[in-house]
C-alpha cells in the first residue's frame, strides 16, 4: 500500500512535467493548427540556458530568465520562419518544425557539446522531504508539483478571467472568428507561440536537474508530448492536464508491477509451449509489463484516434 | 536534367572517395565508429586514444618493420549498422586492411558477418577486424571467426570477476539485476544469474528486469522497486543516458549500497554523478590508472590529458590493440599479409601496458587480461575524469580473468 | 412512376436548434426545381441532407423511390445524384482537364482499378474534352484549375458536377458573386448541360430562378411554405409577406 | 505545383507512346547500365546501391505524401517488415527449406510490405491529415519498440543476417560480388520506378491526387476518399517493402535501425528536399542526401548541422524542393529567356553561395578551435591548410562572408527583376491576368 502512494506521487511528478510541455503545445496547436514538432526542443533549450545561467548566478535567476529567453526565441522563429511557411499550408509548417527540431539539437550540441551536463537542483532543495517505506521523496519533487500546479492555476486564470484569455479561448474554438473581431491575428499567433515555447522552456528549467540535461532529452520526450495532447483533445487545457496525469500514472504503474504476460496467457487458458526456446511465440510468453510500459501511451493514442478522433476531452476535430 | 544530376554525382563521388592513394610505408587502420550524433563523444574519445596510442607506441618509436608508420583513418558510422557496412567498403577500397570498431555490439555483429563474407568472396583483399570494445559474448562464441579479435574482456568474463568481488563481500545478501532490453543487457543478466547461482548459493536475486533501451524518461519507478525489494547491491550493464538516469534515480530514492556497472564513467557521467555517487558507483573494467601501475602509465595518461584537455583515457585496451598489432606484425614479418598477422596474433602473449600480462586466446580470439573493480570517488585519485575531482580508484584486481572460461567457438582457419 | 427525388417528413437539428422541420417535397423526373428562401432558411442544410453530407435527424430521402438512409455521399453519387457547392470546390492543383476526367472515372466503370492507364481510354479522354467543350473551357484545358478566374472556376464546378452523367443534378448557388454578364453566361450553360435531366437549384438571384425553373419551392425556417410554378409562387401572398416582398415588385 | 501529366504535344492523341514519354526511361536505363563502368570501385558501387534503394523508398513515400497527401512519420516500418521478411526467406534458402533465385526476393519483400500495409491501412487511412500522421507516428513507435522485444521475427538489437549466395544461380551468377548486386538492384529500381509512375496514371492514382486536393469533392464523384487512400497506402507499402528487400539483398542484414523513427524521419526529409510535387523529385532528393550522408560525413563532423540547416532553408524558401527549383526554370526556357538570368545569377546567387560557405567555414574553424587536440592547430578547409588559432584566418573568413552577403543583397533586386522578365511570355507586355 505504501508503494501505491509512492507511485502515485512519482506518477504525479511525471504527469505534471508532461503537462508543462503539453499546455503550451495544445495552445499552439489549437490556435495555429501547427503540430509543433520542435516543442520539446524548446524544452531542451530551456534546460541548457538555465544550466548556463546557473554556472554564473545559481539556479533561481535561471528559473525566470531562461523561459523568457526561450519564449523570445520562439516568437522570433514564429515571426521569421513559421509565418513565412504558413502560406504554403499545414503540411510544410509541420515539416518546418520537424526540421527545426533536428537543427536545434545540432545547434545545442555545437555550443554545449554532446556530454550530459552537471545541471543540478538548488542546494536549498537538496534534501529528503520524507520517506515512505524506505523510499525517499526529495524536496525537489515537491517543488516540481507545486510549480506545475502554479502554472496550471495561472494559465486557468489568464484564460478565463482576462481579456486576452477570452480572445484566445474564442480562437481555440473558432479560429476564423477572431480575425473578424478585428484583432491582430499574426501578433496573437506570435504571442501564443512565444508563450507556448516559453512554457516549454520553463518545463526544461525545472525538469533538467531531475531527468538529465543532454542532447537526447528533446527526442526522448518529443513524441510523447504529441501523444498527450492528441489523447487529451484539442483546445482543452483540462484535457491536456488529465491526459498528462493519465500518461504519468500509466507509465509509472506499468513499471511498478511486474505483470507477466505468461500469467495472462495462462489465465486465458493457453498452455505454455513445452519447448519455449524454439517457439515462435516465445517473446510473448516472456514479456513483462515494464518492458512495454513506455510504449503504452502510443497504443492508447492509436485506440483513441481510431474511435474518438477528437481526443478524450476535445471540443473539435483534429 | 537527369544526365546532369548523374554527372554531378559522379564528380562528387570521385572527389569524395577516390582522393586517397595508399602511401607506401604506412599501415592504415580504419576507425569505424560514431563521430556524429548522440554517441559521438564516445567515438571521438576513442579516436583520440587510438591516435595517441599509435603515436606513442609506434610512430615515435621508429615505426614497425623498419619504419612503417601507423595511420588512424576515421570513418563516421553514425552508430548505424548500414552506414558501418558502407564505410567498411570505402575503407577497403582505400586499401585499408585493419578495421577497428567498438561501439555497439549490434554494429560489431554486422561488421564481423560482413568481413567474414568479404574475406571469403575477395581472397585478394582480406581484412582483419580489431574489435576493441564490443563485449557481446556471442562474438567469441557462436559468431566467432578467424578475422575477428576482441581486446576487451567480454561481458561474461567481467561478470565472473564481478561476482568474485560480490562473493567476498559478506554483507551483500540480496542482488537486483536491471538492464537495457537488448542483446547486451540480456547477456549481462544471464551471466549474473548463472554466476551467482553457481558461486554464491546464499545470495538472493530479488529482481531481474529489462527496460526499453533509450526510451525511459524517468527511472524513478524502477528505483522505487529496487529500494522496496530490500536489495543490498545492484548490477547493471546500462550505458549512456540510461546509466545516468538509472543511477541518479536509484541514489535519489535513498539507495546506499553498491551499484555495480560496466560503463558508468567519463563522457560527462562521472561529473554528473559527482558527490552523490561517491563510494556507491562501481565499475568493472579491463584496466585502470588510479593508482598507476608504473611510471610509464602515469606519463602516458598525463601526456594524453595535456594533448586532449577535454578527453580522457576511458578505454585502456586501445593501447594494447596498437601494441599487440605491432608485435604481431613484427613476429609475422609483414604488415600487409593479414592472414600471417592473424596467425601471429593467435595465442600471442605479452606484457599488459596497464600491469600484468596479456594473452590472445587462440581458440576464440578473446584477449585474457587482468580485470579491475573500481570505485567512483575523489579520494586517492591521481587522474580524475571529466575535469572534475572524481575518478575511479582500483578496489580489486582479478588476475588473468576468465583464463579458463569456456567457449563454444569452433574456429575455422584458412 | 415515382418522383426523381422525394423528401418525406425530413428534419435536422443541431443540438437544440432545429434547422429543417418536417419537410415534404416531390421533384418529378425532368423537372427544373428551384429552392428559394431568406438567409438561414436551411437551404444548404437541405442540400447536405439530400446528398449524404449530413445524416437527417428524422424522415427519409428517396431517389427514384430508393431510400438513401445511411448511405455515404459516394454511394449516393453512384445512384445518379450529383451536386455542386456554394463555395467553389474543385481540385486546385490538378489541371482543368484532370478535374473533369476524374469526375468521369466512376461512371465509366473504372472504379479503383490500377491496371488501366487513364491516358489510353478513348471514351474517358474524349468524354472529358467533350465536357470541356460544353463548358467552353477547352482553351484552358492544361492550366492548373486553381489559376482560373472565378467565373471559369464556377463553370468548371458545373462541368465536374454533370460529368458523371448523373440524372439528378443539384446546384448550390451557381451564380453567387458574379457580375451580370457572367450570370447570363452561367445560366445559359446550366440550361444547356442539364437538358433532359432533373435539376434542383438553390439561388438568390431571382432573375436566374424565374428564368430557369419550372417549379419553385420557398423554404422559410426549415419548412416549405409554398411550392408550384413560378407564376403561382409569385402570386402567393404568404410568400410575398415572408420573403419576396419588394424584390418581386421589381420584376 | 501542378501535375504536368499531359504533354501538350500529346493533345488529342490519346494513349500513343510519345518519344518524350519514353526517352527519360531509356536514358535512365542506359545510365544505370554504364554507371559501374564509370565508377568501378566497390565503394562507389555500394554507395550507388544505397542510392538506388533510397530512391525506391523515397518514391514509395512520395506516393503517400506527394500524390496522396498523407504525411507519415512511420514509413520505415513497411520497408523494415519487407526487409526482415526477405531476410528470413534468404535464410530458408540457405537452409534448403525453399529454393528460389535471389532476384525474386525483393518481390517477396514487397508482398510482406503490402500485407502489413493492408492490415494497418484498414484503420489508419480512415482519415487524412493530422489523424493519419499521428497514427503513423504511433504505429512507427510501436513497431520500433517491438523490434527489440519480438526477437523471433526482428532478431533483437543485432537483427537478422544471412548470406545471399545460396539462391538458385541465375545464368551462372551467385550474386557474391557487389557488381552483380548492383545490376539486380538497378533492375528492380527501374521496374519499381516505372510501375510507380504508371500507378500515378491509373484511375486510382489520379483519384489519389483528387483526394489529396479535396477529399470531400472526390466523395461526390462516386469515390470513397477512404478507400482511395487505402489503395494508395497499400501500393506504397508494397514498394517500400521492395526497397526493404533490396536492402536485405545488398547488406545481408536488417537491424532495429531499419524500423526506427530516425529512418522514417529521414525519408520524409529526403522526399521533401527533392520535391514532392514532381515524380522525379524524390529521386533527386535520394541522390543528394546519400551523397551528403556518405561523402560529406567523411570530411566534416558538423555534417548533420548543415543537413538540418539545408532542410529548414528549403522548407522556408523552396517548398517545392530541388525539383521545384529546376521546374521553375521551365517557363524561362520555353520563352527562350534563360540567358537573361545568367548574369543576375552570377551576381547574386554566387556571392550568396560564397557567403554560406564562409559561414560554414566560420563554424568549422570555431569547432576546430574548441575541439582539436592541444598542439594540433593546423586544419585543412577547402584544400587550404592553415592554423585555426590565426587571427588573420578569422579576419579573412569574416570579411569574405560579410562582403559576400552584402553583395548578394545588393544584387538581389536585379535578380528579381530579371526573374520577372524571364517569366513573361515573349510579346506580352504584362503578365497573364
Key terms for this structure?
heterotetramer, A: 318 residues, mainly alpha, ABC transporter involved in vitamin B12 uptake, BtuC, two-stranded antiparallel ribbon, 14 helices, 72% helix, globular, C: 251 residues, alpha/beta, Rossmann fold, 6-stranded mixed β-sheet, 4-stranded antiparallel β-sheet, 10 helices, 10 strands
Itemize the secondary structure elements and their pairings.
The complex is a heterotetramer of chains A (318), B (414), C (251) and D (433).
Chain A lengths: L1 H31 L6 H19 L1 H28 L3 H23 L15 E5 L2 E4 H23 L1 H11 L3 H4 L4 H27 L5 H16 L4 H20 L4 H7 L14 H5 L2 H4 L3 H12 L11
Antiparallel strand pairs in A: 1-2
Helix pairs in contact in A: 1-5, 1-8, 1-9, 1-10, 2-3, 2-4, 2-8, 2-9, 3-4, 3-8, 5-6, 9-10, 9-14
Chain B lengths: L1 H16 L8 E8 L6 H18 L11 E8 L4 H13 L4 E4 L3 H17 L6 E4 L16 E3 L4 H14 L5 E7 L2 H17 L4 E8 L8 H9 L4 E4 L3 H13 L6 E3 L7 H5 L7 E5 L9 H13 L9 H16 L5 H8 L3 E3 L5 E5 L4 E3 L2 E7 L13 E8 L16
Helix pairs in contact in B: 2-11, 3-4, 5-6, 7-8, 11-12
Chain C lengths: L4 E10 L2 E11 L4 E5 L6 H8 L7 E6 L2 E2 L5 H6 L2 E3 L12 H10 L16 H13 L15 H14 L4 E5 L7 H14 L4 E5 L3 H7 L2 E6 L2 E6 L1 H6 L1 H8 L1 H4 L2
Parallel strand pairs in C: 3-8, 3-9, 6-7, 7-8
Antiparallel strand pairs in C: 1-2, 1-4, 4-5, 9-10
Helix pairs in contact in C: 3-4, 3-5, 5-6
How many structural domains does the protein architecture of chain D include?
2
CATH topology of the largest domain in chain D: ABC transporter involved in vitamin B12 uptake, BtuC
Instruction: Tell me the β content of chain D.
Output: under 5%
Strand content range of chain C: 15-25%
> What oligomeric arrangement do these chains adopt?
heterotetramer
**In sequence order, what are the helices and strands of chain D, one letter per element?**
HHHHHHEHHHHEHHHHHHEEH
- Would you tell me which CATH topology of chain C applies? Rossmann fold
Per DSSP, the total helix count of chain C is: 10
> What topology, given as strand order, has the largest sheet of chain D?
1-2
Largest interface, and how many residues on either side?
A: B-D, 57 and 57 residues
Structural class of chain D comes to mainly alpha
Number of strands of chain D: 4
Care to count the β-strands of chain C? 10
> Helical region count of chain D?
17
For the CA atoms, what is the radius of gyration of chain D? 24 Å
Amino acid at each position: 500500500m505504501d508503494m501505491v502512494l509512492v507511485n502515485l506521487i512519482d506518477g504525479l511528478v511525471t504527469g505534471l512535467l508532461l503537462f508543462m510541455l503539453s499546455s503550451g503545445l495544445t495552445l499552439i496547436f489549437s490556435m495555429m493548427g501547427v503540430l509543433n514538432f520542435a516543442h520539446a526542443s524548446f524544452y531542451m533549450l530551456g534546460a541548457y540556458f538555465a544550466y548556463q545561467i546557473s554556472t554564473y548566478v545559481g539556479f533561481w535567476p535561471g528559473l525566470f530568465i531562461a523561459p523568457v529567453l526561450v519564449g523570445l526565441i520562439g516568437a522570433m522563429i514564429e515571426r521569421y520562419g513559421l509565418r513565412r511557411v504558413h502560406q504554403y499550408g499545414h503540411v510544410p509548417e509541420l515539416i518546418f518544425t520537424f526540421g527545426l527540431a533536428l537543427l536545434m539539437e545540432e545547434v545545442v550540441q555545437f555550443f554545449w557539446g554532446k556530454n550530459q551536463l552537471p545541471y543540478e537542483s538548488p542546494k536549498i532543495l537538496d534534501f529528503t522531504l520524507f520517506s515512505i517505506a524506505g523510499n525517499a521523496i526529495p524536496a525537489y519533487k515537491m517543488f516540481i508539483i507545486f510549480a506545475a500546479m502554479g502554472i496550471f492555476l495561472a494559465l486557468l486564470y489568464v484564460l478565463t478571467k482576462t481579456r486576452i484569455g477570452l480572445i484566445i479561448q474564442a480562437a481555440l474554438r473558432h479560429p476564423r472568428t477572431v480575425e473578424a473581431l478585428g484583432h491582430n491575428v499574426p501578433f496573437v499567433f506570435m504571442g501564443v507561440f512565444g508563450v507556448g515555447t516559453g512554457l516549454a522552456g520553463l518545463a526544461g528549467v525545472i525538469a533538467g536537474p531531475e531527468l538529465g540535461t543532454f542532447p537526447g532529452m528533446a527526442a526522448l520526450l518529443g513524441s510523447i508530448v504529441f501523444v498527450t495532447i492528441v489523447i487529451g483533445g484539442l483546445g482543452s487545457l483540462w484535457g491536456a492536464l488529465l491526459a498528462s496525469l493519465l500518461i504519468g500514472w500509466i507509465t509509472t504503474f506499468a513499471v511498478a508491477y511486474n505483470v507477466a504476460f505468461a500469467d495472462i496467457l495462462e489465465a486465458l487458458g493457453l498452455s505454455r509451449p513445452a519447448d519455449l526456446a524454439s517457439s515462435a511465440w516465445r517473446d510473448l510468453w516472456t514479456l513483462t509489463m515494464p518492458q512495454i510500459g513506455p510504449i503504452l501511451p502510443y497504443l492508447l493514442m492509436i485506440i483513441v484516434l481510431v474511435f474518438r478522433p477528437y481526443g478524450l476531452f476535445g471540443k473539435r476535430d483534429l | 536534367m537527369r544526365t546532369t544530376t548523374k554527372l554531378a554525382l559522379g564528380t562528387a563521388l570521385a572527389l569524395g572517395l577516390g582522393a586517397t592513394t595508399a602511401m607506401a610505408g604506412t599501415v592504415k587502420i580504419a576507425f569505424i565508429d560514431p563521430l556524429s550524433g548522440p554517441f559521438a563523444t564516445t567515438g571521438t574519445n576513442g579516436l583520440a586514444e587510438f591516435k595517441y596510442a599509435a603515436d606513442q607506441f609506434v610512430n615515435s618509436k621508429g615505426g614497425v618493420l623498419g619504419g612503417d608508420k601507423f595511420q588512424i583513418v576515421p570513418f563516421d558510422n553514425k552508430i548505424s549498422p548500414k552506414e558501418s557496412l558502407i564505410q567498411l567498403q570505402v575503407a577497403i577500397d582505400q586499401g585499408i586492411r585493419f578495421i577497428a570498431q567498438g561501439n555497439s555490439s549490434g554494429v560489431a555483429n554486422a561488421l564481423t558477418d560482413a568481413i567474414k563474407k568479404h574475406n571469403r568472396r575477395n581472397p585478394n583483399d582480406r581484412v582483419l577486424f580489431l574489435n576493441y570494445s564490443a563485449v557481446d559474448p556471442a562474438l567469441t562464441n557462436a559468431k566467432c571467426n578467424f578475422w575477428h579479435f576482441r581486446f576487451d574482456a567480454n561481458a561474461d568474463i567481467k561478470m565472473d570477476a564481478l561476482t568474485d568481488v560480490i562473493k567476498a563481500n559478506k554483507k551483500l545478501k540480496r542482488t537486483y539485476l536491471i538492464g537495457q532490453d537488448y542483446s547486451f543487457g540480456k547477456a549481462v543478466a544471464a551471466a549474473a544469474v548463472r554466476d551467482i547461482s553457481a558461486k554464491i548459493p546464499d545470495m538472493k536475486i530479488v529482481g531481474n528486469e529489462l527496460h526499453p533501451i533509450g526510451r525511459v524518461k524517468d527511472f524513478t519507478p524502477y528505483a522505487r522497486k529496487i529500494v522496496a525489494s530490500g536489495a543490498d547491491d545492484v548490477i547493471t550493464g546500462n550505458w549512456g543516458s540510461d546509466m545516468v538516469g538509472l543511477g541518479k534515480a536509484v541514489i535519489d530514492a535513498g539507495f546506499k549500497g553498491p551499484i555495480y556497472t560496466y560503463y558508468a564513467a567519463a563522457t560527462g557521467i562521472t561529473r554528473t554523478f559527482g558527490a552523490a555517487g561517491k563510494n556507491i558507483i562501481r565499475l568493472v573494467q579491463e584496466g585502470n590508472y588510479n593508482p598507476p601501475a608504473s611510471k610509464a602509465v602515469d606519463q602516458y595518461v598525463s601526456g594524453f590529458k595535456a594533448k586532449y584537455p577535454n578527453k580522457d583515457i576511458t578505454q585502456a585496451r586501445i593501447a594494447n590493440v596498437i601494441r599487440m598489432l605491432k608485435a604481431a606484425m613484427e613476429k609475422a614479418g609483414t604488415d600487409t599479409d593479414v592472414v600471417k598477422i592473424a596467425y601471429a596474433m593467435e595465442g600471442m602473449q605479452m606484457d599488459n601496458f596497464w600491469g600484468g600480462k596479456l594473452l590472445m586466446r587462440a581458440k576464440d580470439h578473446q584477449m585474457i587480461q587482468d580485470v579491475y573493480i573500481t570505485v567512483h570517488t575523489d579520494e586517492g585519485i591521481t587522474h580524475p575524469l571529466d575535469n572534475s575531482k572524481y575518478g575511479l580508484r582500483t578496489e580489486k584486481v582479478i588476475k588473468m580473468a576468465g583464463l579458463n572460461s569456456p567457449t563454444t567457438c569452433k574456429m575455422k582457419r584458412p | 412512376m415515382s418522383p426523381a427525388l422525394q423528401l418525406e417528413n425530413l428534419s435536422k437539428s443541431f443540438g437544440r436548434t432545429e434547422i429543417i422541420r418536417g419537410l415534404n417535397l416531390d421533384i418529378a423526373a425532368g423537372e427544373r426545381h428551384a429552392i428559394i428562401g431568406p438567409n438561414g432558411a436551411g437551404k444548404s442544410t437541405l442540400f447536405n441532407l439530400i446528398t449524404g453530407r449530413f445524416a437527417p435527424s428524422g424522415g427519409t430521402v428517396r431517389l427514384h423511390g430508393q431510400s438513401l438512409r445511411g448511405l455515404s455521399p459516394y454511394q449516393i453519387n453512384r445512384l445518379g445524384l450529383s451536386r455542386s457547392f456554394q463555395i467553389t470546390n474543385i481540385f486546385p492543383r490538378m489541371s482543368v482537364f484532370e478535374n473533369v476526367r476524374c469526375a468521369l472515372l466512376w461512371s465509366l466503370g473504372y472504379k479503383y482499378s490500377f491496371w488501366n492507364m487513364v491516358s489510353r481510354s478513348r471514351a474517358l479522354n474524349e468524354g472529358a474534352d467533350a465536357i470541356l467543350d460544353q463548358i467552353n473551357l477547352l482553351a484552358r484545358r492544361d492550366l492548373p484549375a486553381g489559376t482560373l478566374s472565378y467565373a471559369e472556376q464556377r463553370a468548371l464546378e458545373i462541368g465536374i458536377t454533370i460529368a458523371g452523367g448523373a440524372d439528378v443534378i443539384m446546384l448550390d448557388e451557381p451564380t453567387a458573386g458574379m457580375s451580370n454578364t457572367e450570370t447570363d453566361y452561367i445560366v445559359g450553360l446550366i440550361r444547356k448541360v442539364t437538358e433532359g435531366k432533373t435539376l434542383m437549384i438553390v439561388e438568390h438571384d431571382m432573375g436566374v430562378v424565374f428564368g430557369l425553373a419550372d417549379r419553385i419551392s420557398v423554404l422559410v425556417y426549415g419548412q416549405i411554405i409554398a411550392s408550384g410554378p413560378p407564376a403561382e409562387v409569385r402570386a402567393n401572398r404568404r410568400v410575398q409577406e415572408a420573403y419576396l416582398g419588394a424584390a418581386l415588385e421589381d420584376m | 505545383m501542378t501535375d504536368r501529366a499531359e504533354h501538350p504535344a500529346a493533345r488529342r492523341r490519346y494513349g500513343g507512346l510519345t518519344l518524350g514519354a519514353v526517352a527519360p526511361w531509356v536514358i535512365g536505363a542506359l545510365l544505370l547500365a554504364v554507371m559501374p563502368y564509370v565508377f568501378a570501385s566497390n565503394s562507389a558501387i555500394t554507395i550507388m546501391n544505397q542510392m538506388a534503394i533510397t530512391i525506391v523508398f523515397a518514391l514509395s513515400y512520395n506516393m503517400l505524401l506527394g500524390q496522396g497527401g498523407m504525411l507519415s512519420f512511420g514509413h520505415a516500418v513497411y520497408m523494415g517488415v519487407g526487409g526482415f521478411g526477405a531476410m528470413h526467406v534468404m535464410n530458408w534458402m540457405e537452409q534448403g527449406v525453399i529454393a528460389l533465385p535471389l532476384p525474386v526476393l525483393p518481390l517477396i519483400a514487397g508482398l510482406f510490405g503490402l500485407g502489413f500495409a493492408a492490415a494497418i491501412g484498414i484503420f489508419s487511412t480512415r482519415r487524412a491529415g493530422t489523424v493519419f500522421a499521428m497514427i503513423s507516428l504511433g504505429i512507427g513507435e510501436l513497431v520500433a519498440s517491438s523490434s527489440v522485444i519480438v526477437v523471433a521475427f526482428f532478431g533483437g538489437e543485432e537483427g537478422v543476417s544471412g548470406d545471399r549466395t545460396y539462391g538458385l544461380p541465375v545464368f551462372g551468377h551467385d550474386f557474391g560480388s557487389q557488381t552483380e548486386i548492383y545490376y539486380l538492384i538497378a533492375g528492380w529500381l527501374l521496374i519499381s520506378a516505372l510501375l510507380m509512375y504508371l500507378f500515378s496514371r491509373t484511375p486510382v492514382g489520379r483519384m489519389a491526387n483528387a483526394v489529396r486536393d479535396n477529399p470531400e469533392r472526390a466523395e461526390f464523384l462516386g469515390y470513397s476518399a477512404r478507400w482511395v487512400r487505402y489503395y494508395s497506402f497499400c501500393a506504397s507499402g508494397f514498394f517500400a517493402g521492395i526497397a526493404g528487400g533490396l536492402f536485405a539483398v545488398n547488406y545481408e542484414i536488417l537491424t532495429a535501425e531499419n524500423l526506427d523513427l530516425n529512418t522514417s524521419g529521414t525519408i520524409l526529409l529526403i522526399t521533401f528536399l527533392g520535391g514532392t510535387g514532381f515524380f522525379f523529385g524524390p529521386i533527386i532528393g535520394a541522390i543528394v542526401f546519400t551523397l551528403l550522408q556518405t561523402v560529406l560525413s567523411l570530411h566534416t563532423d558538423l555534417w548533420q548541422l548543415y543537413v538540418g540547416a539545408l532542410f529548414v532553408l528549403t522548407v522556408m524558401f523552396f517548398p517545392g524542393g530541388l525539383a521545384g527549383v529546376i521546374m521553375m526554370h521551365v517557363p524561362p526556357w520555353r520563352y527562350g529567356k534563360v540567358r537573361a538570368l545568367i548574369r543576375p545569377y552570377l551576381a547574386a546567387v554566387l556571392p550568396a553561395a560564397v557567403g554560406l560557405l564562409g559561414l560554414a567555414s566560420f563554424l568549422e574553424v570555431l569547432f576546430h578551435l574548441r575541439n582539436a587536440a592541444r598542439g594540433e592547430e593546423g586544419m585543412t578547409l577547402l584544400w587550404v591548410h592553415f592554423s585555426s588559432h590565426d587571427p588573420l584566418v578569422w579576419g579573412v573568413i569574416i570579411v569574405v562572408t560579410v562582403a559576400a552577403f552584402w553583395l548578394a543583397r545588393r544584387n538581389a533586386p536585379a535578380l528579381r527583376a530579371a526573374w520577372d522578365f524571364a517569366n513573361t511570355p515573349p510579346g506580352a507586355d504584362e503578365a497573364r491576368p
